[in-house]
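Ticket 4471: requesting a sanity check on a complex prediction with fe (ii) ion. Repro inputs:
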Amino acid sequence: MGSVVHSLGYFLFEVSHLDAWDRFLTKVIGAQRGEALGEGLVPYRTDDRAARILLRQGPADDLVALGFEVPSEQALHEVTVHVREGGHSIDVGSADEAKARGVKGLVRTFEPGGVAVELFYGPALGTTPFRRDSVAAGFVTGEQGVGHLALRANSIAETRAYFEQVLSFGLSDHIRCTLPGDFKVDVTFLHVNPRHHTIALGSGLPKHLHHFMLQMASLDDVGAALDRAFANDVRVVQGLGRHPNDQMVTFYCVTPSGFECEVGWGGRTVDDSTWQPTTYNRVSDWGHQSPYRRPPKRRTEMGEQP
Ligand SMILES: [Fe+2]
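Returned structure tokens:
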């Protein structure tokens, strides 16, 4: 079966502190709070869609569901049959659930780690255009979807097989290396559209979600977001740097739920007709250092005076 999954349409997070998340998403990231669509979920926008990030209040502070868009009601039926034929249970979401997500209809199944995979069609647009108050050039979404995420896999092989066989993802590449402190990195990157990866799979993570990534169309907007993170006392765990595989320039900061948000610019895209998966031996070409790791010396060989 060819891929009927178009893109990652939305993230659904369960968070303890809705107010802190509102400040984080609107004042630091530059997302816009959307109009409430239904009971129990607070929508945020990164483009003209009514909801790209959905929050529900609760103790998990983790990823709850991923919304994958298919092009039509007919495609939703087809993918439902395909998921069942693969031996996975799948249930129809209620009308209230669809309304709260700003979609016409959805079905729900679960990836091997237990995160809900919500396949949907018919995303609603917001009643007003997305305001680019702080992200002047906007976020990169469209055919590439809302962004990407790094997901915990108990078995990378099993979870990779699920996304490949059930949702028609393809292999982008791997990063395998050992960082200082004998920290082993083994990450598998998968794509479902031209975005270099929509899902990265790693093991040994404390939560389902290591980070989610939002891509901006301008490097200046990423720099401005980094300034807003520092100005709002959001902890930046990795300053600007470039990844070798997707070639994005990004930084990472900590969300109010403890998992991280990566903000980036300049990702390459995948053309399946020519793409050759490879394995990289480094996480970054440059940068991605902790800005707090080395306190500046008062007197240096560069001649600074105390
Ligand atoms: Fe990432």
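Notes from triage: The mean pLDDT is 95. Leaving this open until the requester confirms.
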